[in-house]
Design brief:
The chain is an alpha/beta fold and about 325 residues long. About 45% of the residues lie in helices and about 15% in strands. The chain has 13 helices and nine strands. The strands form two sheets. A five-stranded parallel sheet has the order 7-6-5-8-9. A four-stranded parallel sheet has the order 2-1-3-4, sandwiched between helices. Helix 1 crosses helix 13, helix 2 packs across helix 13 and helix 6 packs parallel to helix 7. The longest helix is centred in the C-terminal third of the chain and has 20 residues. The radius of gyration is 19 Å and the shape is globular.
């Protein structure tokens, strides 16, 4: 696998072999860290810029700790710390940062922004999340699945909820590339875009995967190996959408009934944060307005023995190490 000087913008840009290579590298780097093997020389002397137009806990911490572990220095630019797209064009920002830094991470809104950064920066650019794509999460997720099952071929992967945006898109592509049977379970309005579905179905023909869209929870979850969900309202969306999302997506909550159709060995995954209890400000506000104690997943499932969400969260760091090392090292 040779990804030196490559950008990491969306999963469609990578072959099955390259994705598997990144997953295996992630597992190797995780094993080294657990054994206390120093990785300081891997990116020693490198400087990395982190541009966050959308704030984050896991993505920021994963990039910072990953960089420090491998000997790199980091500059964090929060939404108020950069003039990107405001007083300075993306092209100009990219050309300035590209002369100062060896790699640039971007987390924000439109995919076109990270694509433009990559076009002009002259150094590797990594997508920490856009509206359309979340590739770093994919490597962590697939790494977690490989740890639990030891394979991808033949795994039935079910995504419940709003499948139109970054998580639904990226998971569908990645499952198709790796030979997994992907199911999006939601009401028709929340299905992925038809063109991308067709692209994934074409990929699936080559890898032995399948891509299915259904509104039937029992059909979707029958013999599932993985059941995955995400928040129903994403950062940056207006509060007014809560009414409609709760009404439309409540039938697709991940709960004990949904899991009763899955295999006994099935696992639960979530990219976090999750609204599974009332221990958040938004959770309390939603409870006060709608009288519900949880949203996309029940606390019983989130805290249960099938849940691997914190393994998955830890793996963000190891997988981001792999992406940076493969493209910079």
């Amino acid at each position: 696998m040779d990804l030196k000087n490559r950008h990491f913008l969306k999963m469609l840009d990578f072959t099955t072999e390259e994705i598997n290579g990144l997953i295996d590298l992630s597992l190797r780097l995780k094993d080294e860290k657990k054994k206390g093997i120093s990785q300081k020389s891997y990116l020693a002397g490198k400087n990395i810029a982190l541009i966050f137009e959308k704030t984050s806990t896991r993505t920021r911490c994963s990039f910072e700790v990953a960089a420090y572990d491998m000997g790199a220095e980091v500059t964090y630019l929060d939404p108020s710390g950069s003039q990107i797209g405001k007083k300075e064009s993306i092209a100009d920002t990219a050309r300035v940062l590209g002369r100062m830094y060896d790699g640039i991470e971007y987390r924000g809104f439109e995919q076109t922004k990270v694509e433009d950064l990559a076009k002009y920066a002259g150094v590797p650019v990594w997508n920490g999340l856009t509206n359309e794509s979340h590739p770093t999460q994919m490597i962590a997720d697939m790494m977690t699945i490989k740890e639990k099952f030891g394979k991808f071929q033949g795994i039935k992967f079910v995504y419940m909820g709003d499948a139109r945006y970054n998580m639904g898109n990226s998971l569908m592509v990645t499952c198709a590339k790796l030979g997994m049977d992907f199911v999006a379970c939601t009401c028709r309005e929340y299905f992925p875009e038809a063109g991308l579905v067709q692209t994934c179905q074409d990929i699936a023909k080559e890898t032995g995967a399948t891509v299915t869209l259904t509104e039937d929870v029992a059909e979707a979850c029958k013999d599932a190996d993985v059941i995955y969900t995400d928040v129903w309202v994403s950062m940056g969306e207006p509060d007014e959408v809560w009414d409609k999302r709760i009404k439309d997506l409540s039938p697709y909550q991940v709960n004990a009934k949904a899991f009763s159709y899955a295999k006994p060995s099935a696992i639960f995954m979530h990219c976090l944060p999750a609204f599974h209890d009332l221990n958040t400000t938004i959770g309390k506000e939603i409870h006060a307005k709608y009288g519900i104690d949880c949203m996309e997943v029940t606390d019983e499932i989130f805290e249960g023995e099938r849940s691997v969400v914190f393994d998955e969260a830890e793996n963000r760091m190891h997988s981001i190490k792999a992406v940076m090392y493969a493209t910079l090292g």
